From TrEMBL:
Keywords: DNA-binding, Transcription, Transcription regulation. The keyword Calcium does not apply. This is GntR family transcriptional regulator. It holds the Pfam family UTRA. It comes from Arthrobacter sulfonylureivorans. Residues 12-79 form the HTH gntR-type domain.
Length: 245
């Protein structure tokens, strides 16, 4: 069966299949951003009722893949759009991308035990000369860089995950929970805009000076102990983060 056809025997709701077909076409650049996606066109293409078409378009709009122009219709959005809901638990963003069908991949630096920068140590309440596990992670979606994270974790000293383990799990905290029973509780975020440096531009595939979204996060265990710090740089135009209090 062609990737653009519906599978009536799969058990997957038709609106989800339609949404995934259109999402992939938009992400791959196959959908013309100048051409509106009309209900009539989609009804003719997929030969279904209006309900699944409308549901698919509504969810694509919510996810940022399409947008409405007053009086002109619904159009594909340029570039990748990732909307992170407020109910995605900290440390589970990579799994959210997987579950959303975005086919993420990650590239992780070799983890090392290091003394953290003074500011990070103060935020986490570390002892003098205490070493933390440090690594960087570059997350890509559909082959395009989305975010780079700089991570420090207060972990047992025998916690030495390999690059492969970190890349396959998508989260060091998932490995900590699996191996040591250490679970995350609440987290604290601080976000602001910045301009891409030359290094940022090379890593994320943008022009130097382009706007980036920075989100710094302090992770705490279920008992409230600060266990990790992460600073993540995101494509400002491709990433939307929803907060709740």
């Amino acid at each position: 069966m062609a990737s653009g056809e519906l599978d009536y025997s799969s058990g997957v709701p038709l609106y989800r299949q339609i949404k995934e077909i259109l999402r992939r076409e938009i992400a791959d650049g196959a959908a013309d951003p100048q051409k509106p996606m009309t209900e009539a066109q989609l009804l003719s293409r997929f030969e279904v009722s209006r309900a699944p078409i409308r549901q698919a378009l509504m969810e694509l709009t919510s996810d940022g893949y399409v947008y409405r122009k007053q009086g002109k219709g619904t159009f594909p959005a340029r570039g990748l759009r990732v909307h992170r809901p407020a109910d995605v638990q900290s440390g589970r963003f990579y799994q959210f991308l997987v579950d959303s069908g975005m086919h993420p991949s990650s590239k992780v630096s070799v983890p090392e035990w290091v003394e953290p920068p003074t500011e990070v140590g103060q935020l986490l309440g570390t002892d003098e000369h205490e070493r933390l596990l440090h690594f960087t992670r570059l997350i890509s979606v559909e082959g395009a860089p989305l975010a780079e994270a700089n991570v420090y974790i207060r972990a047992p000293r025998d916690f030495n995950p390999t690059v492969q383990e970190l890349e396959e799990s998508g989260s060091a905290f998932e490995l900590l929970e699996r191996g040591y029973g250490i679970t995350l509780g609440r987290s604290e975020h601080e976000a602001w805009a910045t301009a891409a440096t030359a290094d940022d531009a090379a890593t994320l595939g943008v022009s130097e000076g382009s706007p980036l979204l920075v989100i710094d996060t302090i992770f705490r265990t279920a008992g409230g102990r600060p266990i990790g710090w992460r600073s993540a740089l995101h494509h400002a135009e491709n990433f939307k983060y929803r907060f709740t209090q």
